[in-house]
Every structure is written in structure tokens, then in C-alpha cells.
Amino acid sequence: MDWEKPWKKEFNIILDELSQLYSGKIVDPADSKTDSFRVADKDYFIYRSFHGSLNGIEFVIEINELPLSGRQILDGDDNTEYLRIHLRIPTKYKIFITQEKWGHKLQKVLRLDKEFQTGNEEFDKKFYLKPNSEKDKGLLKDSSIQAAINAVDSFAEFKLSSNGIYWSNMITKKNQLNIEIISNTIQSLIRMSEMVKGGK
After folding, report:
1. What is the DSSP letter of 112?
2. Predicted local confidence at residue 73, as pLDDT
3. Residue 99 included in any domain
4. What is the tens place of the pLDDT at every residue in 74-104?
5. How many domains is the chain partitioned into structurally?
6. Is residue 154 in some structural domain?
7. Cα dist. 158→35, 155, 169 in Å?
8. Which residues, including other chains, have CB under 8 Å from residue 192's CB and lie 6 or more apart?
9. Model's pTM, two decimal places?
10. Does residue 1 lie within any of the structural domains?
11. pLDDT, tens only, 7-27
């Protein structure tokens, strides 16, 4: 295990498998003469990534020490890393979703946060929803989009924006770096993109 890139070996296997399944290329940070970047006195090491396409939709798969929001979910130097997928397809929405955690529930009980509710109790208990507009709220109330979100493999953070669809999940064990899980997630996100694509 490489202390700078603890999932390097497993992810390199995934990258090779992705390049056999999808058209695209593996991008190596060594080609840009940098394999790390510095934020707030901490070095973040960059893995190789896969830039591919499926059904005409471009996507990027990478590992990063930061989730989509750019903040650490866990504190400390614990080598927490995230598998991230970005579909480069503009959407008409601006929505941020995470799994509902005890901290979200506590904030709501203490009335520190008012989260949007879709009216689907099971869905609302599972996800913490942050839509940006009435249009976004309308989308989240749609049962077909709820089913599409449920169909995506578990995630730490999920975002729809004018820049595309973003998905990330904290890597805690090797079996998460599984080509079948990653491929299913890509395909689920691409099916969802049909429902949300379009400009502002």
C-alpha cells in the first residue's frame, strides 16, 4: 500500500478494466509533471483517472481526497479518499444530496436547518435534500427521479448542476473498487441524465 495513494494498486486494475469496457483514455498526473496539489498546508496526491464516454456522454472517474463539496467529512490525517464520477452533461437543475445522517436529524430537531421534504416519507428519511429552486423541488417530487436516485449505488454526495452530474463515495474497503459496481453506477447515472439534461 502506498501511503500517498492507498488505493493505487486496486484503482489501477479498475482503470485497465474501464479502458477495455469503454472508449476513452487513462490520464496520468505524471504527464502534467505534478502528482499532488497543496491546500491549507496539506498535500493531496493525484491518482491516474479515466476519461471516457458512453452513449455520447463524456465522464471522468477518479479518486480524490475531497468529496464533491470540497470539505472533509472526517477530520484528521486519516487518508480518507473518495471515488468520484462526473458526467459532463449540463442539467437544468442545481441539487445537492447526501445520505441522511444523525447530524442532519439533530439539526432538524433543534430547528437549525429546514430540509426540503418530497412527501415520500421513505425517500425523505434516506436522503438529505438541498434543492436550489422550485424547479429543483418539483424534480425531487417526481417518483421516477426518486427511483433513479435510489438505483444509484450508495454515495457520500450527489450533485446535479449546469456543469453535469457528480457522484462520490468514501472508499472504506477494497470491494468498493469493483468494476461491476462502478460500471452499474455509470449506467445508472447515464439513465438519470436523460431525465435531467439540458441547459439552464
Report:
1. S
2. 45
3. yes
4. 444 456 788 999 999 999 999 999 887 656 5
5. 1
6. yes
7. 26, 7, 9
8. 145, 148, 149, 151, 152, 165
9. 0.84
10. no
11. 888 999 999 999 999 999 999
